[in-house]
Amino acid sequence: MKIYAFVIMPNHLHLLWKMEELHKRGDVQRDFLKYTAQQIKYDLVKNHPLVLERFRVDAKDRRYQLWERNPLSIYCYSVAVTEQKLDYIHNNPLQERWQLASLPEAYLFSSAKFYIENTDDFGFLTHYRE
Known about the structure:
By secondary structure, the protein is an alpha+beta fold. It has one domain (2-116). The chain has helices at 25-47, 49-52, 79-91, 112-116; strands at residues 2-8, 13-18. The chain is globular and about 45 Å long.
């Protein structure tokens, strides 16, 4: 898996990624959602049990729902589409609704700094042109 870009927002996240060969999108997405949901749930049980109740659902196969059932997945079929998605992801925290930062690179939970200042604070990012 190559992670090209990301932003973690208060109630959602955006990822721009590329799967290495031999992996199916559905499998990778399922495993990512399952693993991260379990980790979030473990943290909420331990540190924020009252918050966990906000995610309770009346479903046959689960007690809590941390991710949407069918997350949006868009294929980036060209450099232009990839760059449009990259801009959207990095400018998401600046939207009037959120106002989480004044500049994309100032938002800590984003890959914007990687592209704007050539600084990889995370160690797992790959430039989309590589």
